[in-house]
Structure formats: C-alpha cells, structure tokens
Design brief:
This protein is α+β, with helices and mostly antiparallel strands. 27% of the residues lie in helices and 50% in strands.
Length: 96
C-alpha cells in the first residue's frame, strides 16, 4: 500500500452543501478504488493562477489515502467526469 494525495479544486458557484456532497462523492470514489482515507483537508477558497471556466477562485480540498498502485488511475478516471471539479491531481506522497 502506498500513500497518495488527491487534490481537488471545486467550483465556487456551489453552495456549502453541494460542495460537501462533491467531496463525499470523491471520498466514495477513493474507497471504491480500494483506498483507505486517512485525512481530508479543506484548504478553503483561493485565487487561481489563471481563469478556469471564467472563474478566478476555487475551493481546495486534499484527500490523503492509502491504496495500491493501480488505484490513482481508477480514481482520476472517475473524478475527471465530475462537472463541479475544475481541476484534480492525484500524486504519491513522500514517505516521511
């Protein structure tokens, strides 16, 4: 099992409840791919480096999880089709 981090940038057009639902759906995708979630970090609303879909800000979330090596590809395939996720990135975390 490797340690991974899934970073999500969620649209600011969503209400708080809808954003929480998007994060829960992402967590369900991670668990469905065989991941064990250890932590979910909400980094809050931040300015984007460039406009995405005419938006200048986004809500950042970081989901830390343990999974097998084939899990990130499965997770990215499912997160890619989520409409309210502007950007995503799944990376392997450093061993500390």
């Amino acid at each position: 099992m490797n340690k991974y981090e899934l970073a999500l940038v969620v649209s600011t057009k969503l209400e708080d409840d809808a954003r929480a639902e998007v994060v829960e759906k992402a967590k369900a995708i991670v668990e469905k791919a065989g991941g064990t979630i250890s932590d979910v970090e909400e980094a809050g609303k931040k300015r984007l480096a460039y406009e995405i879909q005419k938006m200048k800000e986004g809500f950042y979330y970081f989901i830390h999880f343990d999974a097998d090596a084939d899990a990130p590809a499965k997770i990215e395939a499912n997160v890619r089709i989520m409409e309210s996720v502007l950007r995503y990135l799944c990376v392997r975390a450093d061993e500390e």
